[in-house]
Specification:
eight-stranded mixed beta sheet, Rossmann fold, alpha/beta
């Protein structure tokens, strides 16, 4: 499978990026991947999903802007949104017209609070979104995550502007299911919730099912 390893630059900082393309080389669609807080975008289920997408004619772009919790704690939500926006712009500059996102866990919190307008579809692998009673995003936006004692305070209104078709996948053994999952699906403007039997938050218990669901949505 063609794999291009490259430097992905954001604000003068260079990070590792990987663009996986179909064997025949031509593709109109590309998926931008945002991982969770505790697992980067390379290896395991991400490798399997992106290679299977490439076999189905869909390219994917992954990038790693933190490699441990300390590096993530130094970033603010504003930093993470800037990285996401630059990733989408990079893919657009590569000539892809049909843009989707695959977001895992904390990556869902990043994406749904400021979804880029160029993105048509989002597949959420167990987005880690739990709504607070009151939003504090305005005051928290530029604050490093490590300085937020209680984490990001997100409300239903903070995701209501996510103007894209969304499918949410949660395992029935995930601690974010059912209440947070159902609340997120209800708060997003156009979202479908699908539940995977005997899967947990890792999305590594039943990889074939996860990949099949991913292809069904992103390679359609």
């Amino acid at each position: 499978m063609p794999l291009e390893q490259l430097d992905f630059e954001v604000d003068g900082e260079a990070y590792e990026g990987r663009l996986v393309t179909p064997p025949e080389g031509d593709a109109e669609s590309c998926v931008v991947v945002l991982p969770g807080a505790g697992h980067g975008p390379f290896g395991d289920i991400f490798d399997i999903a992106t290679y299977e997408l490439a076999s189905a004619g869909v390219a994917s772009f992954r990038f790693e802007t933190w490699t441990n919790s300390d590096e993530l704690d130094e970033k603010s939500l504003a930093d993470l949104h800037a990285e996401m926006d630059d990733a989408v712009a990079f893919v657009r500059e590569r000539g892809y017209d049909d843009l989707s996102m695959l977001v895992k866990s904390f990556g869902g919190r990043i994406a749904f609070t400021k979804l880029p307008g160029d993105v048509d579809r989002v597949l959420g692998w167990a987005p880690a979104v739990v709504f607070a009673d009151d939003s504090r995003l305005d005051e928290q936006y530029d604050v490093p995550l490590g300085d937020l004692e209680d984490g990001l305070a997100i409300t239903r209104g903070d995701v209501a502007a996510a103007d894209a078709e969304v499918r949410l996948l949660y395992g029935d053994d995930d601690h974010f299911y059912p209440e947070p999952a159902e609340s997120l699906a209800d708060a997003l403007p156009d979202a479908e919730l699908r539940v995977l039997e005997d899967e947990n938050h890792s999305f590594n218990e039943h990889r074939r099912t996860v990949v099949a669901e991913t292809l069904d949505y992103l390679a359609d």
